[in-house]
Amino acid sequence: MTTMTDRKLTMQKAIAEGIAQEMAVDPSVFVMGEDVGVYGGIFGATEGLLDKFGPERVIDTPISETGFIGAAVGAAINGMRPIVELMFVDFFGVCMDQIYNNMAKIHYFSGGTISVPAVLTTAVGGGYSDAGQHSQTLWGLFAHVPGLKVVVPSNAYDAKGLMISAIRDNNPVMYMFHKGALGLGWMVNNPHATGPVPEESYTVPIGKAQVARDGNDVTIVTIGLSVHKALDAAALLEADGVSAEVIDLRSLIPLDRETIVASVQKTHRLLVVDEDYQSFGMSGEVITTAVQGAFDYLDAAPVRVATPDIPIPYSHPLETWALPSVDRIVAAATEMVSG
Amino acid sequence: MDIPKEHLVDMYETMVRIRRFEERIRELYFADKLPAFDIAAGLIPGEMHLSAGQEPVAVGMRPHLQAGDAITATHRPHHVAIAQGVDLNKMAAEIFGRETGLGHGKGGHMHLFSVEPNFGCSGIIGEGMPVAVGAAMAFKARDTGNIALSYFGEGAANQGAFHESINLAALWKLPVVFICEDNAYAISVPKASSTAIPDNSDRASAYGIPGVLVPENDPVAVYEVMGAAMDRARRGDGPSLIEVKTDRLWGHFEGDADAYRSDDFKQDMNERDPLIVFGKRLVEEGVLSEAEQAAITDKEYATVEAAIDFAMASPYPAPEAALNDVFA
Amino acid sequence: MVIVGLIANPASSKDIRRLTGLARVVDVEEKANLVARFLVGLAAAPNVEVLAVDDQAGLVRRAVRLAGDRGASVGYLDLEVEGSEADTRLGAAMLKASGARALVTIGGDGTVRAAAEGWPEAPLVPVAAGTNNAFALTEEPTVIGLATALAVAGDGGAFAPTTAIAVQTTKGEAVAVIDAVVVRDHWVGAGAIVSPDRLVEAFVTSSRRTAVGVASISAALGPLAGGHARRISFGGSAVVRAVFGPGVVLDIPVADFDDLPGGSEARLMESAGLVALDGERRLPAAGGLVRVIAGPRVLNLELAFSAGSIGLTPATGGVSLGR
Q1: Is residue A205 part of a domain?
Q2: Is there a single domain that holds both residue A221 and residue A182?
Q3: The CATH number of the domain where A106 resides is what?
Q4: Using CB atoms, which residue from B198, B218, B240 is nearest to C19?
């Protein structure tokens, strides 16, 4: 933790600031991806970097994900610390081999003798009608394959600290930022997207969850934009006499199972909110963690509020219905507590 | 170009070493899997892809290497690894799945990694090509004077990674040489059935870089062409694409009945076995006497045997060690 | 029915000179296109059948598909190719035996050389698709095709004589159509001569100012009388500026030279390693003897066009070749 401050930044600006501060002190750090330079990143994650550091360290690439993500692996093996951006996580299909078979496995295959200190940044999440190929989160998929660390900040403070940690980590780190949590002027206004961010460089540990709100009646475990929704839901639940504890996982790999288990032991109820597809992913993993670590403490079967197993639909009422919402969280928590 | 005698002799010695290693691996691979072939059984479990016949493409670049140069190779990596000077004991131990192997038994024959020399390979077709591009990016950014070599087969030339990698390397003028080992067959599929054009070196002009065809499986021809290509890269003049027509003397994998190649085809290949052809030429040219050649054979056989012995004598890793080294 | 032989070499223009100079790859598609254009020009002669070597890259077949109905019809020799210059040599010999009135080659100087070995004094139509193209015709192939149609309709007068060098060594015999050059190398390797410091001695049949390669050195020394070959020895203090290859201009030290008339013989200097034939290292030089001989007869486009013409026959309205 560092000195608290009155200065507030959007999560987008916090990410760019974290990258800039590391690039200033470590010449081996460089950025590459589509539109990361002149445009500053489609979602602003690399805003201002080209002007500060020039085109040799901030590289606009052709549309060649296999090529440039594989190149990030090669550069990372050979003394650089690349930050490579996959514009939308949904595009992983064209380059997944380089991510899960190559980047993630070289350290293991080499018996620990070769490291791949690369950060793979990517934009995730829906809620603004970008439809089925531009709205996914997919962290369950990436957390599922061994060898990648996966972090998903929910607020500006964590975003900067996790970015600096990710850059300094000698492992490949997938850094997933939710588009709705960035505080972009062209997205739905989200007051949670702006928060205090210290000016100096600091880190937030990878693999450590944070209790975003204390509570006693039910534990809500979640990540990314759903943290905001869970906090809004917790405020409403409070008014109805239900005290919800909100855990912001911040990282999926490593997963902070201790914090999950300790919280469920305290509240005896678990609600998981996951914007990723419901089945075979993060929500199942968190519930299993609680069942294994706190089985005797549970007063109710764990519940999940997730996106159903459907491609994310386009039309606004369809999408709003499908993605986790404050209403669904309130309803699920209320039912758990009363039942 | 006058070729220094020590380069010629070194290339020959390396070819002998590679061939002996492949022969011994082949013998040991089958030793305890037969009579009914059980792929998981024995000293060397799993798949095995051997490079007998492809020695010239690997040794031709060897005298031009500098310390720190990066090489990425394929699922058929042994000849390239040996040519680059990867520790033969640790390489054998890794193939045997022992604790003393390059990857402590975690990678095996298709995932051999070495820090010095700078070598990696992959079981996924074309996967190493972008990695070589990235290594070249790092060398250029850090101004180390090193270059990267990317080995791949004629089958990989139809994979997206080939096109993306060469475009990136050409666009950013990176110090990388792309080497296509054309052994005419991608497992069982002949090149004429997979590729719209007859020579992959022709594809170079699609990316604005020079392409060269080496039509014979000859270490001296490879030596000259690779020397020019590697010099060009080191000078900062950018990438090139070299295609060598080589011969995969054995099947795609060990256990492959190889029924899709005719007996005539195989006989022709064996008649031009590059190890024999080059060996004869060296004696004819007076570079080596027959006695010296025999001495080289003895020496290299001993080196290979020492590596095999090292591997056989090494312990297996503790089972729980499977959990180690996922993360740094 | 007049037979015109065709040999296309898919391997020309892909060697090490792409790296050492500014030579470009002439890929198979480009060559197929050249052949197709040639076939269209040749089709002006309605009674001509092309007999081709069915090359390993399917180059001629691609050309035939491209030219379609507009091109002359093409049949294939009963020759199993192995993808080496032996295909060209054997193919040329077979085309001679088939009574071909012209031998068309698509490739570089090496292709021409191999063809000349298979059919000495062939009536040659060498279409350029090589690196130096010191020998071949570099004009538009459609025009060359039309000229060939006119030439084969005539009495062979459109083919002009050339000079060649016969080389005999203890390791074999060969023919060079442009130059036989003794070099210091001992290994054939990648074939092409790329560094002039390896040159010991050359026998050159051409001094066309537009030639590239060792022939360019000869050209700089002055004109060469017909039927003669020039012997040049290298080294010394005098320097000649030559176009050694595409994108390569060099100053070459020349010691002396003299011109040898047809039929002359000369010994190769013993000190050296290999004899390069038409730019490619080939034979060990030991025991080497060269002889100045008659080379293939090469199509002269001007002669072809002035000797023949295409006229309209008023009665039928058709087109025929005539004088």
Answers
A1: no
A2: no
A3: 3.40.50.970
A4: B240
Residue A3 lies in a domain: no
Q: Which two tokens stand for residue C269?
A: 């200097």
Give the 3-state DSSP-derived string for B241-287, with helices as H, strands as E and coil as C. EEEEECCCCCCCCCCCCCCCCCHHHHHHHHHCCHHHHHHHHHHHCCC
CATH fourth-level superfamily of B5-315? Thiamin diphosphate (ThDP)-binding fold, Pyr/PP domains (3.40.50.970)
Q: Which residues of A are catalytic?
A: 65, 134
Please, what is the angle between helix B290-313 and helix B5-31, to 10°?
40
Residue B168 tokens read as 């990136």
A172 and A315 assigned to the same domain: no
User: How many B/C residue pairs have CB atoms within 8 Å?
Assistant: 85
Q: What is the pLDDT of residues B258-316, one digit of tens each?
A: 999 999 999 999 999 999 999 999 999 999 999 999 999 999 999 999 999 999 999 99
Residue A202: inside a domain: no
Mutation to test the B interface, candidates A91, A97, A109, most B Cβ within 10 Å: A109
Report the alpha-carbon distance of residue A69 to residue A67 in Å, rounded.
6
Burial profile A151-190: b = 16 or more Cβ within 10 angstroms, e = fewer: bbbbbbbbbbbbbbbbbbbebbbbbbbbbbbbbbeebeeb
> Is A278 part of a structural domain of the chain?
yes
Neighbouring residues of C272: CB distance < 8 A, sequence distance ≥ 6: C182, C183, C184, C200, C201, C285
Contact B285 C19 (CB under 8 A): no
> Does the predicted interface ipTM exceed a cut of 0.90?
yes
Specify whether the CB–CB gap between C148 and C175 falls below 8 A: no
Q: What angle do CA C150, C153, C156 make, to 5 degrees?
A: 90
A150, A253 in Cβ contact below 8 A?
A: yes
- pLDDT value at position C321? 55
Distance separating alpha carbons of residues B167 and A176, to the nearest angstrom = 28
Segment B154-211, tens digit of pLDDT: 999 999 999 999 999 999 999 999 999 999 999 989 999 999 999 999 999 999 999 9
A-B C-beta contacts closer than 8 Å: 148
Q: How many helices (H) and strands (E) does chain A have?
A: 12, 14
Last residue of a domain, one of A167, A196, A225: A196
Alpha-carbon distance of B114 to B283, in angstroms, equals 35
DSSP class of residue B322?
A: G
Count of structural domains, chain A: 2
For C231, residues 6+ apart whose C-beta sits below 8 A from its C-beta are C201, C202, C203, C257, C258, C259, C260, C266
Identify any residues that bridge with B176 across adjacent strands, giving them in sequence order. Answer: B148
C244 conformational bin, left if phi > 0, alpha if psi -120 to 50, beta if neither = alpha
B133 touches chain A (CB under 8 A): yes
Name the residue of chain B whose CA is nearest to A253's CA: B327
Do A179 and A321 belong to one domain? Answer: no
User: Position C108: which residue type?
Assistant: G
Strand partners, A177: A123
The Cβ of residue C306 has, within 10 Å, a number of other Cβ atoms equal to 11
Please list every residue in chain B whose beta carbon sits closer than 8 Å to the beta carbon of residue C186: 2-3, 285
Prediction pTM value: 0.92
Helix (H) or strand (E) holding A306: strand A303-307
Give the CATH number, domain containing residue A266.
3.40.50.920
Domain boundary among A196, A224, A248: A196
What is the extent of the structural domain holding A117?
8-196
Neighbouring C-beta atoms of residue B306, cutoff 10 Å:
13
How far apart, in whole angstroms, are the C-alpha atoms of residue A5 and residue A198? 6
Let me know whether A264 and A186 are in one domain: no
Which tens digits make up the pLDDT trace of B50-78? 999 999 999 999 999 999 999 999 999 99
**How confident is the model at residue B166, as a pLDDT?**
98
